Amino acid sequence: MTEHIENLFLHVAAPGILGLKPYVPGKPISELERELGIRDPLKLASNENPLGPSPGALAAVAEAMGELARYPDGGGFQLRGALGEHHQVDPAAVTLGNGSNDVLDLVARTFLGPGTEAVFSEHAFAVYPICTQLVGARARVAPAHDGSAGPRYGHDLRAMRALVGEGTRVVFIANPNNPTGTWLSSDQLLEFLEGLPQRVIAVVDEAYFEYVEEPAYPDAGRWLERFPHLIVTRTFSKAYGLAALRIGYALSHPQVADLLNRARHPFNVNALAQVAALAALGDQEHLERCRAVNRQGMAQLTAGLEEMELEYIPSVGNFVTVDLGRPAAEVDQALLRQGVIARTVDGYGMPNHLRVTIGRPEENARFLAALRQVLRR
Ligand SMILES: Cc1ncc(COP(=O)(O)O)c(C=O)c1O
C-alpha cells in the first residue's frame, strides 16, 4: 500500500539512502508456499549448498544451544585462531563478519564516504553499489568485457584500472563474480594489484572460492604480505552450507583489520555461527563431497541447457546464468508456478538471463524438466 504514497521521511533520510533500492533476495520457500499454495518447492535461487553443512557443524550448534543466554565471544578468538592456521596468517589478519556482506559493508564504512569513489565492474555483485551508495561515496562502474578480449560479462581489469583516480579508495573485485560466474587468473589479478596505488584498497571477494577448480585460479589470501592494501573476503554461506547462520570473514594486513574492527558492531557474529564455522572448517571431507556434487551438477545442468540450445555463461561457481533470449521475468514466473525458484538478474543489467544454483542431481533434473516445459523445448 505505502509504495504509492510519497515517503514523508525522504527529506530526513541520509543522502546515500535516497538513491538506493533494497537488495532483492531469492524468494524464500515459505513465501512461494504461501503465495501460490505450492507444496515442496525447489529453491535454486540463492547459491546455497544443496547438501547443507557438515554434520559436525550441526552437532556443534546443538551443543551450544545451552549457552544462548550468553553473549558470543565478540573477538571470535577461537575461530580467528583456526582461520589464521587454515590460511597460515596471523589471527590479527582475520576480521569476522555477519556474512561476508557485513565485511563488505565494514570496508565501505571504514574507507569510503562523501567525496571518495569506489570502482567495480558492470554486472558485479549487487552489494558493492549498495554499500558504496549507502556511505555517500561515488560508484565508478567499468564496462565488462564484451567478449573480444576476455570472457563476455567478466570483469575487465584494464577498464577498472582506468577508472582509478585521486578520489578512489576501494576497488571491489569478485572472483569469481556473481551472477556471471566469470573468473580472473593469478596472472591477471597479480598484474592488476601490482599496478594499483597502495592508497587504494583492493577487495577480492572470494565467496565461491571453494568451488573453483581451475588451475590458474588464485588464492589471493596468499598475497597479503606482498600487497598490504589487499582485503580478501570469504564466506561460510556457500560451500560450507551455513548461509542461515550468517558468517564470513576478511583476511588483510593486521593494520587494515584494526581499522575494520573499529567499525565492527560488538558481537556481530553470533555464538552458533562461530561454533558451526569452526566445526565446518575442520571437516574438509564434507567440503570435498560438496565440491564433487557441484562438479557433477554443473555438468548435468550445462548438458541440459545445451540440449535445449540455450546459451549460458561458463561459470566456475555453484550456479550458472542462462541467456533465455527473451525477458527472463516471464519464464521465472512460469517456473514459480511449477514450484521452481530460480533468480532473474535484471537488476544486474541482464534482463534476458536467469541464474540457477546447482542442486542435487534430482533437483537439477527437476529444474531442467520445468524449464523445458516452460520454453517448450
Ligand atoms: C560474490 C558474493 N560475495 C558475497 C556474498 C555474500 O554472502 P554472505 O553474506 O552470505 O557471506 C555473496 C552472496 O551471494 C556473493 O555472491
Describe the protein in words.
The protein has 377 residues and is of the alpha/beta class. Helix content is 37%, strand content 16%. It has 13 helices and 13 strands. The chain has helices at residues 15-18, 29-36, 55-64, 77-87, 100-111, 127-134, 157-162, 186-195, 254-263, 271-281, 284-307, 328-337, 361-375; strands spanning 42-43, 94-97, 117-121, 138-142, 168-174, 201-205, 230-235, 248-252, 311-313, 319-323, 340-341, 343-345, 350-357. Helix 3 runs antiparallel to helix 10, helix 4 runs parallel beside helix 10 (271-281) and helix 11 runs parallel beside helix 13. The model has no long low-confidence stretch (mean pLDDT 96). Residues 47, 99-101, 125, 174, 178, 205, 207, 235, 237, 243, 248 line the site of pyridoxal-5'-phosphate (PLP).
What's the helix-strand series?
A: HHEHHEHEHEHEHEEEHHHEEHEEEH
Taking pLDDT < 50 over at least 5 consecutive residues as the criterion, the unreliable ranges are none
Strand order of the largest sheet: 2-8-7-6-5-3-4
- What summary fits the major beta sheet? 7 strands, mixed
Number of helices: 13
Fraction of residues in β-strands: 15-25%
Task: Describe how the helices and strands are arranged.
Elements: H1 15-18, H2 29-36, E1 42-43, H3 55-64, H4 77-87, E2 94-97, H5 100-111, E3 117-121, H6 127-134, E4 138-142, H7 157-162, E5 168-174, H8 186-195, E6 201-205, E7 230-235, E8 248-252, H9 254-263, H10 271-281, H11 284-307, E9 311-313, E10 319-323, H12 328-337, E11 340-341, E12 343-345, E13 350-357, H13 361-375
Parallel strand pairs: 1-11, 3-4, 3-5, 5-6, 6-7
Antiparallel strand pairs: 2-8, 7-8, 9-10, 10-13, 12-13
The structure holds pyridoxal-5'-phosphate.
Pyridoxal-5'-phosphate (PLP) binds at residues 47, 99-101, 125, 174, 178, 205, 207, 235, 237, 243, 248.
